[in-house]
Please model this.
Amino acid sequence: MSKLIDAGREVLGTCREAKENFDYDQLVKKYDKHTADMLISEQLNKGGISIDEFNVYKKVKVFVQHGGLDVSEAVKEAENKAVSVISNVLPA
Model:
């Protein structure tokens, strides 16, 4: 049951993140980026996050959402390289 509760919290957090990103993007559309940044900067600062760090987060988020990161492919490459190294070291 606790795994189900943890999964629910994870989903809720993801939904909250998506909503906050949507709301921020709407602020940018309604005003401009500078104004949107000024409107959220106090809250970010309270959390120990600079506007520059927030901008990096947004850049990474978009990169990942659009398929720029494929961790499973990196795992496959690492496994293939490990097999290759082992097969070159061990006698046949």
